[in-house]
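Team,

Forwarding the record for the chain on the shared tracking sheet. I've put the sequence and predicted structure together so nobody has to dig through attachments.
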Amino acid sequence: MADTATATLSARAAADPRRRALRRKRRLAVVFVLPALLLLGALVVYPVVFSVGRSLFDAGGDRFVGAGNYAAIVRDPATLKAIRNSTLWVVVAPTLLTGLGLLLAVLTEKVRWATAFKLVLFLPMAVSFLAAGIIFRLAYEQNPDRGVLNAAVVAVHDAFHDSAAYPTARAREHHGLAGGPGGPYSTERTVRPGGSVSLGLVGVAPEALPAGARAAAAPAPGAGSITGLVYLDFAPGGAGTPGTVDPGEKGLPGMTVEAVRDGRVAATATAAEDGSFRLTGLADGEYTVRLPAANFAAPYRGVDWLGPALVTPAIIGAYLWVWTGFAMVLIGAGLSAIPRDALEAARMDGASEAQIFRKITVPLLAPVLTVVFVTLVINVMKVFDLVYIIAPGPVQEEANVLATRMWLVSFGGGNDQGLGSALSVVLLLLVVPAMVFNIRRFRRSGA
């Protein structure tokens, strides 16, 4: 019995130093972790708790409204539009990014200079969202002289469709031509074959005339045809008489002229370098000479990328430019871990590359693809910079997502921090499930 008591006392004496050492380690761990916990509490926990409490009060923070701000969310058309846009972002952007990342990761394994290719695609990740927003705001400019995308679109369009030569030209009032801005313009009096007309226009800068334009000169009349002259009725220095062909005035080459009778086009001609034209093959009768509207059509200005219809897809395009490299690198890392013997065995069995990709590569990459997709979903829910910078003021409401709507309601002129706090809480509740899913998957993969 005494031996047993002695052994127990000895075990306790040996355990006391171990307990003291363990307690010292725990205290030391608390000392190291405490700054991080304080920082986490100040920057995360306190703002979350404060936002939840603030969301229960009115705009001024004085009157308790309970769930009134949350009810206002579903009644506010602008907020509902932001929710719809956020849903579009969550569905489209992560799906496209994951698909593009997978495609590029597979392709880079089959090309030379794969490292350089990956580096180029990953470079946009080094650009801040602020800088990326400014870049794409300029790229999406409607003016093709400034916006690179519309410059390319206009160049392709003009390669297949001739643009009007005189979009700014207009007829002088009370000088023989009738019609509104943009055409068509028709002679106020009818003309018979053998007759001649002079069609004077203004609104064209002398330096904007075609390089081959020559001094205006009317052709000689001819039987069975209507001749005439279409010219710039403006002499250098402002001299000359309106409605009269004066020295120094030039013709408008390339202008289309029509002879119209009973609402039908009987003949068509194109003005020569000196502006002269001849409408031939006309039967006897009264005709109206017309300059069709195609001569004055405004030039094609490209696509309105930042208009109400396309602003959200345009911003998603900018987001893809920034994040495609991220998705490609992560999926490429997972692709490099796939056992090569499985791929080689499938090739030896006669499987095509498409079958290998669909039935072996994608299933083996499923865990990586899921992580990438969920990570992008979390990031997309919080997108703010690109939307706020790229969308112009007039269409800002059409492009708003929950994050931008929250900021605008709270600080961007709305001054309703109660509703803004409610929006922040809703955004947090939407992000938390995706975060929990990702954390659990990381733990399972670590186990």
